[in-house]
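Form 12-C: Joint structure prediction
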Amino acid sequence: MPHAAPSTFTGAVDVIAVLVLLTEFAMLRAPMLRSQVRLYAFQSLVVTALAIVVAATRHIDEIYVLAALSFILKVIIVPRIVLRLLSRAEVSLAGSSAFSVATMTLIAIVMSVFAFFSVGALHLQSTALPSAALAISVAVVLVAFVLIILRSDVVSQAIGFFSLENGVSVASLVVASGLPLIVDVAFLFDLLVAVVVFGVLMRIHHGRTKTLSTDSLDRLKG
Amino acid sequence: MSQTQLAAPVIQALQDLTILFGAPLVSGVIAHVEGRIQGRRGPRVFQPYYDLAKLFRKETVVPEGSSWVFLVGPIIAFSCYLIVPLLIPVLTTYGLPLGYMGDILGGGFILALAGFSVAIAGTESGAPYAQLGASRAMTFGALIEPTILFVVFAVGIITATDLPYALAATVRSSTGEIVRPAHILAAIAFFLVVLADTGRIPVETHSGTLEFGMIDEGRTLEHSGAPFALLRWGSTMKQLILYTILIDVFVAPWGLATDRRPASVVLAIPSLLGKAMVVGCIFAIIDNSFSKLRLFKITEFLAAAFLLAVLAVLVFYLGGG
Amino acid sequence: MNHVLLAIVIVPVVTSIATWWTPPAISKVVTIGSGIALFLLALALIPSATAHSYLAVGSVLRVDALSVVFLVPTTFLYATTSIFAAGYLHLPEGEAGRRYARRFFVGLNVFCWSMAVAPLVNGLALLWVMIEVTTVISALLVAIDDTDGATEAAWKYVILASLGLGIALFATIIMYYAGTRFFGSSYDPSYNKLLSGAHAFPKDVVRLADVLAVLGFGTKMGLVPVHTWLPDAHSEAPTPISALLSGALLATSFYAILRFFQVSVRCLGPAFPRNVLLIFGLASLVLAAFYLLSQRDLKRLLAYSSVEHMGILAIGMSFSAPLAIVGVLLHVIAHGAAKGTAFFGAGSVARKFKSKDMARIRGGVGLLPWSGPMLVLAVLALSAMPPFGIFRSEFLIVAGGLSDPRDAIAAVLVVFVTVAFFGLSWFTTKTMLSPVPERERLRLGRGETSWLIVVAMAVGLVGLVILGVHVPGQLNELLQHAASQLEVAR
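Section 2 - Result
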């Protein structure tokens, strides 16, 4: 059956969500850690744009505040912290991975298919809800999983986690835009704390092993 | 008030003629613009016509030991390129009688047949570079195929038909359809396919003379005279056909004739060629701003196109977008 | 009672700020004081938590019986761990020691603060925030020893726990979305509100939220198959931190799962949420029981025992009898006390023998006259021997399970608890009750490393015995109250 055309708002939200997902895929294939961080910054920018679109169309002024905060935090501060860490590290700036790019892409595609099917199984046919965007955000989360699992360096894994948070942000903007501002701010604050902790642990790791690779982390078993 | 209405066969013939005679012009304009981008004056825009005319006058040399396939291949390919314009919206928004002869897959098959006949003609020559080009073209063709299939699926489920006319009509119907992610993804995927299929950077240096980097161009190295002219002409037509599909089906299906008055049909011709030249210029700009990928990296480029096409289907089919 | 609530939130904050400045010796005392104070405050909350259905301070803090059930073991461990830590820490002289002590005590206090506040906040979103705070702080504490093992364990922990919490955040947002169908697009996701409207939430959405919550918070709780960080972090962290991770942090994550359980049960009826917990619980119990048989590292052994007990908790929640739920809640408290004591003992043994490798530990009881026998008792308590609290709680769970239509599960539970018992008792007989080799006696000498360790363990055992012999009346009432909150509203 031919679907009715979505409203312009839904379409715009979906396109932005797709952009987030595509950035996630790009991170998966980005060979250089720096470019991965830049992709993360870009992705966060896209999420900020989504927040502005949602705020404007649903007339929720609080989200403007959220957009501003997330811009400052995720587009400027977090990438800056990670990039500074990279410039201190001065070792193998190319990431490493267990599989070839094509294999990773295929795995990620399979994960996205799974995401779409699982959200499709919920039958969320609501008029006000861009359900495609929800499915996409689940896909972003799963592709972030793939990124974290298959890339074996601390920076990719950390960026994977941060971008996972971006995926959840998309979902929260789409389905839970009415979440109280205090909660959203608490989420962001948490992210900041997590970034600092990731940074500290990355520094400790680099200080001990002189690499960013996680290949040496195989002592603890059983 | 009665107005002159053009008969359907006439319009149909006009479609074919537009592609046939418009294609070298579009190529000429692109080559000219490209020259300008590179800081040259560039060839005259009508240069392709002169080239073709010259080639038709030249004698035909057939490599020793090659069979009739060597000469028939270009003819088959050329006739394929003449059939495809009948199936796609070139000048009109409404379907013409022969337009329902084949769907978007049918058009794809015929284009593939054309590529195949050029490839075996190249192989038949027995020359190593031509064979190399042919085998590469087939290899990457096989990798492009899944992407095209998924683009077709995406189009199919958006419109619930597999007719290119129907998609164009859907796109025209509202802005919601344009920002629909499935549509945008499919369009971008198809754009990448066109990039690869017309032998543009980052897949291939279309104007290079280095045989090792050649894919599509390599196949025709051994041909000469009239068959070579047909191949050259055919490849400009293929380019225009792909541009037409990109423009009239995906990106900008405006400016087509909505009725059968001679004026609107005739006006649609420059409108199409104009849009094709704009698209061609975009391709030329891309061509001159990126570097060519290594041969083995091309699979990654094609994987990206495939990813977009798969996402288009997913987003639409499972996400309703 | 509101001031008690506020005091619980404020005291550890003040302590952690103070320990930033004070020298190590004073930090130890201050932290012990803060731990004991917090435990007493938590006990003070019990009567009012049973008297009222809930207490709220503003829109952020809210306490009901269920919260207090989880607050009690956390604060109990805060108190005993700070006593233990005071005896356990061997600080190098000079600036390095001061720096380590500052990091350790500030971290410990903030960690305990976050775990104590998590059950007090009102609403799923804030709960997630608090649990994320516990993760990041504890990750730093796991890494604090700066060894290869600690670095590796901390990294694995922070990555896996963050992934889990990412899923949990998704679950929270989906649950919020479920609520928007009933409350409109903007509302405050407090427990009262969610519970009042849960019956009308869309079922598919709540199902998804419930599964994601169990998977996400289950990662932090140590449910198989997302438990893999747990043995590493527990074995490589400094022992006081291991005790807190195992006894309090896992329980806090279980608390979060129960909050989702509460809403889901209202919406979906009991079957679905129970089955989800049952699957994860069985997997954890079975796998952990087998891993317990093949451990060489003392602290890893205790870590797998935690996985096993978390499995028992999840299985207990899947039984329909109210008795089983009371058992589960009692088990949370008893496990906290038992596991804390066991880790204290393990820390004492590891300090004495300078190794966690069980192949090198012989004659523990002979060389450690107090903490050795007490470790044996704690391990017996973990294996559900009377007269300790875990015996009572597991008895209640199994009794509840046998009255369930699916009584085979209770039988499975008993079988694997027995397997786990073999694993644990094999370890004790081999390392603790074996005769002391003469060479070891000469090298290490007989005697305790610190009397504070002995005190901490004794306190834990006394608590376990109290829970086992006779649960105090008010505590029992609290458990009944909390259990009734988790049942289907009739």
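Section 3 - Comments
DSSP finds eleven helices and no strands in chain B. The radius of gyration of chain B is 19 Å.
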